[in-house]
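During the reporting period the student researcher (J.K.) took over the structure-prediction task from the postdoctoral fellow and processed the backlog of single-chain submissions. One of the processed entries is reproduced below for the supervisory committee.
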Amino acid sequence: MKTKIPPPIVAIISILLTYLSKDYLGFFYLHPHIQKTLFILFLVSGILLIFFANREFKILETTVNPMKPKNATNLVSKGVFKFTRNPMYLGLFLILISFSFNFSSLFGLVIYGPLFIFYITIFQIIPEEEALIELFGESYKEYCSKVRRWI
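J.K. obtained the following structure tokens:
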């Protein structure tokens, strides 16, 4: 199985679907201050997670391109990668959740969020893992045994 659509595009499509469904397919009400706080908290968390993960890739001078995992030159396992093997995808998920709160979209939380995780796992993470096992062998398998795929 090969990577298909770049993960940021999948996230943008999910956010767009969340927005389009906000008035029709399930919404919830929170106090505006709580809603805005949750939006900002998840948005900033997602952006920071992506930023710190990207920084680790730059420090080790390896590819950040999710469509070409076989171009990786180093196994990144420090920083945020000590807690999750896929911090950039987790960051995109947090951003999706933030917009679900912003749009008061229940579908964003209970449908599009899980669908995003499913799609990214099947069409992005598993192909990446196969490529990284080829590249880094036992060291990657050992890393996988210590650090979870998402959280």
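The committee noted the following: The longest helix spans residues 106-146.
J.K. will present the remaining backlog at the next meeting.
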